Automatic annotation (TrEMBL), chains A, B:
Its EC number is 6.3.2.1. Homodimer. Belongs to the pantothenate synthetase family. Its main location: cytoplasm. Keywords: ATP-binding, Cytoplasm, Ligase, Nucleotide-binding, Pantothenate biosynthesis. GO terms for cellular component: cytosol. This is Pantothenate synthetase. Gene3D superfamilies: HUPs, Pantoate-beta-alanine ligase, C-terminal domain. One of its GO terms (molecular function) is ATP binding. It comes from the Bacteria. InterPro entries: Cyt_trans-like (IPR004821), Pantoate_ligase (IPR003721), Pantoate_ligase_C (IPR042176), Rossmann-like_a/b/a_fold (IPR014729).
Length: 281, 281
């Protein structure tokens, strides 16, 4: 595994590889790698000649007052994991090399970026679209891999790739969960023991919602039931959204349809957690 | 010369060419080709294995109430010109193929886009940055050619290319003028005979400004003198900006510096005309 820190050098390496006809699988991450990331990386390895993983805690996707400063960083442990899986390149830029003095270009995906998480994290998806656009131009992947846990992010990136005519396949992989159902997330590291237990309420609510939808319940009734499940958990401090949505538009599903997105965002203590399920009935 | 209308096909062609090690020179245009465009295309031909010209009147860069509908379109005459110069590919997409239903991604270069022309053409440079980003991903040029007449545009595109890590050389070519000094522009076609004569006042003012700066005049005095020259021309209906600016920031130059941008934007009748000179003292 080679570690590359300079964007220009990474771009030259990728260019050479693509010129030689190699396919590049790319997994962009913010580090604090967990089994969710590992599963994306393994998939990228299977499907491509070369695998590139980036670790970059992207300041532009944190809203003011969010956890940019305290976001978990453990590059040495991440590197060990990546060496074990045997990836080809770790792209590890610093903030100044991706956002030098005078930086002023931003990519916005309108509409989708203002819904669900976008309502609670102003500027978040603009930061995501911008850094992913930059990383795509640097790494020049054939395929890029994202987790379904960040469903809205994957939808926005697909939209950006189509709209800006990128020649990249976006592969969205299913969410990896702990045994008790909690979705893998770097932010789970923030939870104390009690909070960690109570966080399982999210998947419980999603499963309850799935069951009801499959039984033919109305989306609005399902939402109320999910809310009820979550409200029983006393450590939940703030419910940002819970409900049944259209998987394409992210609008609330008010009538029956064939596919639904069940999605939850809430805070346990100070820790914001999200999760979702796609349901076909 | 092959004419390609489908973005996906153009992208495949470019990808194949680049994989074969060919360099691609790209000249994006809105058609109504004049000698200014022709000089860019000739330069692209000299410096690259393959030359691609696009003709696309981009709706997203026209502000509401501007001349999108009446912008001069003469594809047959343009094609003849391009065939004479012997370019390799004409990329001629329609609006629906570049902005299909549901399109929602925009690229913004903050700061620079709000100055000079940006003040008078809200959204213009967002439209420019967006379509150029798309065209760059479709055509995958080695080098892209722009005219200095649209100085602010070239500055914004350079910024976007650097910020979004595109691997493309932006080549800015000097302005081509009629014998009487008027900068070549597709919009000159809007001018009647009298207006066409009075339009020469723009270059006269720029030349006057250059002379004074080289003689050591203060930027603010130069601006006043240029204004005076222009105000003598009775067909000038609206002066949008006239003055001496910093070529990097586009802010008004208030003190002496080594390089200046002299720039003018005004309306003669309903026709908006711009021009500029870079001056080193």
């Amino acid at each position: 595994m080679e570690t590359i820190r300079i964007p220009r050098i990474m771009r030259e390496i990728s260019k050479d590889l693509r010129a030689k006809g190699k396919s590049i699988g790319f997994v962009p991450t913010m580090g604090a790698l967990h089994e969710g990331h590992i599963s994306l990386i393994k998939r990228a390895k299977q499907e491509n000649d070369i695998t590139v993983v980036s670790i970059f805690v992207n300041p532009t996707q944190f809203a003011p007052g969010e956890d940019y400063e305290k976001y978990p960083r453990d590059v040495e442990s991440d590197k060990e994991k990546l060496q074990t899986i045997e990836i080809d390149y770790l792209f590890l830029p610093d903030v100044e090399s991706l956002y030098p003095k005078g930086y002023s270009t931003y990519v916005t995906v309108e509409g989708l970026s203002d819904k669900l998480c976008g309502k609670f994290r102003p500027g978040h998806f603009r930061g995501v679209a911008t850094v992913v656009c930059k990383l795509f131009n640097i790494v020049r992947p054939t395929r890029a891999y994202f987790g379904q846990k960040d469903y809205q992010q994957s939808l926005i990136i697909r939209r950006m790739v189509e709209d800006l005519n990128f020649d990249i396949d976006i592969v969205v992989c299913h969410t990896i969960r702990h045994e008790d159902g909690l979705a893998m997330s770097s932010r789970n590291l923030y939870l104390n023991e009690q909070e960690r237990k109570s966080a399982t309420v999210i998947y419980k609510a999603l499963q309850q919602g799935e069951k009801l939808l499959k039984e033919g319940a109305e989306p609005l009734d399902v939402k109320l039931k999910m809310m009820e499940v979550i409200k029983k958990e006393s450590l939940v401090k703030e419910i940002q959204y819970v409900g049944v949505f259209d998987p394409e538009t992210l609008d609330e599903a008010k009538e029956k349809q064939k596919k639904y997105l069940l999605a939850v965002a809430l805070k346990i203590g100070d820790t914001r957690l999200i999760d979702n399920l796609l349901v076909e009935v």
